[in-house]
Amino acid sequence: MSGAKAIDFNVTLPLNGQFEVIVVGGGPAGCAAATAAAREGAKTLLIEASGCLGGAGTSALVPAWCPFSDKTQILYRGLAEKVFAETKRGMLHVKEPALDWVPIDVERLKRVYDDLVLGAGATILFHTVLSAVRTDGRGRVTSVVTSNKAGLQAWSAKVFVDGTGDADLVAWAGGAFHKGDADGKRLQPATHCFTLANVDDYAYRNGPPLHASHADSPIFKILASGQYPLIPDAHCCNSLVGPGTVGFNAGHLFEVDNTDPASVSAALVQGRKMAVQFRDALAEFAPAAFGNAFLVATGAQVGIRETRRIEGDYELTLDDYLARRSFPDEICRNNYFIDVHWGRDGAVKKAGQLEDWSKSNFHYGPGESHGIPYRCLVPKSLANVLVAGRSISCDQRVQGSVRVMPVCLCMGEAAGLAAALAAGSPAPDAHQVDVTRLRRRLKEEGAYLPD
Questions:
Q1: In the 3-class helix/strand/coil scheme, how is the chain assigned residue by residue?
Q2: Which of 93, 130, 286, 287 lies at 20 to 30 Å from 395 by C-alpha?
Q3: Is the pLDDT of residue 11 over 80?
């Protein structure tokens, strides 16, 4: 598929051309990309649609990091490890050696990202939305158009990094992409995360675990009761994010397409109602911990797992994943399992079903990982654009693994560094970046890239 965003360019827009690298999207991948580009000396602008950086871990309230280790060592290093360590440092209830499923202090993480990006010398524009993309008609993006309180503005750069998560910049530039299955359907469901406060810490830590991997989880009694119809399944990830405060990545919102504003709007409304039902259900079926809890926040954004995936110079496949394949141009390693959330027909509703689901997700053993090639970050039909995050070039199954925050941070650092290298050439071309030099610089900055 391909797409383009039309705009009336008869309207004269002020052109801001003082940047060498522009990153669109301030999630983990975008933050790392902007930081790495600025660190290399490129004048860098980070454009973010919301009022904070961090995406899934902040605006969407995802309550915990996916594992940072391969069960033998930290796998996601460089900027990823710095963000992780600095966020964890301020959480006194988290033990220093903890590496896997570590809870997130949302407000601290926002400040960590602010300091990271600004400390590297990049410029941030909040509440600024990508509205159109201009090209020369030959595969080169010349500028992007944004909208904010200053109206419409055009921004030019030598190289652009798409960190939107939905490959908006690539799609609107006419780049090719895939979406969902072979028919362009069956996207993974979304989740609207939320936070409950005034939870009894002792009862929460010592009562029946809520996760669906435990047969005695109260979630199964909640579903069996039929009293809370907006709770669709047993998905109930949760973490103690602070004193008496539990963050939930729970429930699913089906048939949500983050590229369709009407779809997302309906999901936000339904998600807020679902969060209330979770609070009430837990108060009834786990009263020792949640009897006096109240709903303190729902995500400003819906947690989106999947939309577009670009057609890049290489498509990472399930065969690559199963073979633990290495690549000469790999820019990071990954060992997260194939965490694909299917539709209503695959929803877990009874004890034991999660075990069957887990068997199809191909968990690695200790020390095992696969590489992600630089070529997956480069849109096939565009010259001066790079992509980082969940929309890289891969098949749908592998996207369920590479979409999570630790690996997005690593991909973002590589994309930003590559963008800066490309911007230094007379005719910037992401396809022609010296990968040996890129890998050397990543290693110098602490990346884990075994020879």
A1: CEEECCCCCCCCCCEECCCCEEEECCCHHHHHHHHHHHHCCCCEEEECCCCCCCHHHCCCCCCECCCCECCCCECCCCHHHHHHHHHHHCCCCCCCCCCCCCECCHHHHHHHHHHHHHHHCCEEECCCEEEEEEECCCCCEEEEEEEECCEEEEEECCEEEECCCCCHHHHHEEEEEEECCCCCCCCCCEECCEEEECCCHHHHHHCCCCCCCCCCCHHHHHHHHCCCCCCCCCCEEEEEEECCEEEEEECCECCCCCCCHHHHHHHHHHHHHHHHHHHHHHHHHCHHHHCCCEEEEECCCCECCCCEEECECCCECHHHHHCCCCCCCEEEEECCCCCCCCCHHHCCCCCCHHHHHHHCCCCCCCCCCEEEEHHHHCECCCCCEEECCCCCCECHHHHHHHCCHHHHHHHHHHHHHHHHHHHCCCCCCHHHCCHHHHHHHHHHCCCCCCC
A2: 130
A3: no
